[in-house]
Amino acid sequence: MENDGKGIFYGVIGVATLIVAIIGATFAYFTATATNNETIKGNAATVSLGLSVEKVSHGEKGLVPQLETALSSAMKGVDGAGTGKDSCVDANGNTVCQVYKINVTNSGTGDAKLNGTLALEKGDVANLKWATVTGWGTDPVAQGAKGDNNIDTNVTVTGGGNKEYYVVIWIEELTTPQNDTGNFTGIVTFNAADGQGVTSTFTV
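Above: the chain sequence. Below: its structure as tokens.
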């Protein structure tokens, strides 16, 4: 009986030890840390604007009046080529219009949304007008006299990209005696949404 009692006693101790071990394992945990600083990389986009205005039509004399209805033909010149040596020159050798190429560039990495304007300082050339031109070099078409000074509104120029425009300037023929004399200037401006932009001035 004494041996049996000891066996039971040791058995109880063994079970108790096992319970304590199990409870102890329940509260055990591992600590481990992993760090990754190679995946998320980048930089802020930049916007850098440039602007050029270049006269692409021919004729070096002062402007003489021209009917708007015949402006597209006038831009082609007597040879009808548009980009030939006689663009904006009539059969008498008079300069009847001027066409300018406007190129706005964005050398940055971010897109820029821009508003473009052309403001004419007419001086004493009261009937001076301008319009945008499409098809320059093939079949130039004036888009009509502008009632305001907008070239384009909310146009997006992508990073590393550019946007080209053509505008024609002429003195409107009134079919009555008129006195448009002197010099005029034009200011082309492209402003970004934040108000920053570029300006180019041409003088005649």
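The first strand starts at residue 49 and ends at 55.
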